[in-house]
Structure formats: C-alpha cells, structure tokens
Design brief:
Elements (H helix, E strand, L loop, with lengths): L1 H29 L1 E6 L4 H16 L6 E6 L4 H13 L4 E5 L1 H10 L5 E6 L18 E5 L4 H9 L6 E6 L4 H12 L7 E6 L3 H6 L1 H4 L5 E4 L3 H4 L2 H10 L3 E4 L3 H4 L4 E4 L2 H16 L10 E2 L4 E5 H7 L5 H4 L4 E3 L1
Parallel strand pairs: 1-2, 1-3, 3-4, 4-5, 5-11, 6-7, 6-8, 8-9, 9-10, 12-13
Antiparallel strand pairs: 10-12
Helix pairs in contact: 2-12, 3-4
Length: about 325
Amino acid sequence: MKRMLQKVFLVAAAFVFSFALLSADALAAKKKIGILLWSEAGHYLEGREGIIEILTKKGFGNADITEKNAKGNKAAAAAIVEEFAAAKMDLVITLGTTATVIASKRITDIPIVFCLVFDPVKAKVAKSWKSSGNNTTGTSSMVSMYELVARTKELTPVKTMGVLYTPGQKNSVIQLKGVQAVQKKHRMKVVAIPIKTKKDVSVLLPRAIKRVDALYLSGSSTILAEIPAIVEIASKVKKVTVAHVGKTADKGVLIAVYGNARKNGRLAGEKAVKVLKGKKPSKIKIEPLSEFEISLNKKTAEKGGFTIPSSFMKKVTKVIE
C-alpha cells in the first residue's frame, strides 16, 4: 500500500511539473515581441544575438518575435514603430540610440527595452540611470571618453583631436560633446568634422585630417559605413584612428576601445526577461558594461607605420591580423 501511494505521488508530481512546463511554454508563446535594429552595423547584430540568447535560455524562445531593420533610415524606423504599436506588442526591444529615441517618443504604453544606447539620459530617453521614470529601461554602450583619449595618447602625441560626427544623429552628437568635455584635462583641442553624406568623407576629410593629430570616429551609421575610406585617408598621412565600437577595428580602424556588443545584448536580454515576467521598466536600472576591451588592427598599424609600445599591447584583448 505504501509503495502504491509513493507511485501515485510520483506520477502526480510528474504531471504537475509537466503541466507547469507546458503552461510556461504556452505563456511564452503568447508573448509578442518586436525587435527594431537601427541599421545592419555589426555591433547591432551582435547585440541582437545576445538578446535572443538570453530570451531562449530563460524560456521565451517560443515567443512571437517580429524583427525589423530600419537600415539607418529615420522614416523607416518610424514606420516600424507604428507597426509595432498597432500590433500591440507585449514588449518592444530597440538597438541603437536613434531607433530608441523614435520608439520612446511614439510608444508610451508598451514596455521598451533598449540596447547599445550610448547615453539614454542625454538622449532624453530616460530621466536617470537609476530609473527611466517611464516605460523604458535597457543597456548603454557608453565608454569613458577620457580613457579613450588616454589610450590614443599612448600611441601618438595628441594636441588636436579630430572628431567625425553626423549632425542630427543624437548618439554621434553626444559623443562629440563627450570628447569636448575632456579636452581641457588632456590639454588638447577638439576639431569637429561634420560628416552628413558619403561625399563629405572624400571632400572634407582630406583637408581636415591635416589639422589633427588623431581621428575619433563617432558611432554614426553614416560614418561607420565609410570606415575603409576614412582609414585609407588617415593612414596615408599617418594619423591614428580610434573608435568606441568594437567592429570598427575589424573594418580597419587602428584601435577600438569598447564594451562587447554581445555581452551588452545579454544584459539587455536579462532586463527584457524581467519585463516579460511583469516587472515595470522604471523599476529596472539602466546599465553600461563594467568591463571594456581593446582591439588593434595589425594591418592598419603596419600600413600607417605606427609603432605599438609593448606596454599598450598588454592591454589589447584582440588583435585583428
């Protein structure tokens, strides 16, 4: 009799466990998630991979996910946001500052988790890092501009730093201001070089590059799309190029000081899971990564004739051959 009761108990327990799993899967399957990427830039794709990894790991792999890419077009991003709003998504995930700004202005009644937004407070997406004060939360790709300039100065004396930025792209403008904010501490002058179109690279940069000691490429989609041309111009006159997006070094930038995009995506994914389980975005703090990496493009170093000190090489986490 005792054995029979034990068997009945085990069967019942297994049934309850199976039912709970089925219920969890059914709940996840009912969730509608919209993912908006600002462009096809590599770091956004890596961030997206990190997000999906965590959603799958935490039981939301069966959710109804709609993924869209604005391909760097504001009108396209706005149209996608309208589509997500009309579909009454349970959660909207955005990658990139511009995509997030557009989404947060239009959608105020659906939770938004953003990823790879440089400064969400200055971009006016959130009221503070501790609490957005609204329906958003997420992760930041912010890198200390003081440290970025410091690493650049280990490779070359910098009295004048050129900054390539795109007017109208908030992340790019914020990054320009970030470098300007540390120019006194580094005893240098910042030269802002506006890049609005592909043509500006070939027309403006060859003249501007002669006035600077090093060149920082902000995270503008316009600038990131022209990296090979920018690096070619800079290398001819032996000027160091630096950026805060990891994939830029893969494309030719001499050094990149950055937070790992996939790790950033995983962190955003963790926040997305909390939201899907019922927590309010305003109760989830916004965070950047706590650790940063340095990539060095060896071919660019050789082509530009740059000597890389052994002390600097010890800090490099990835060498692009």
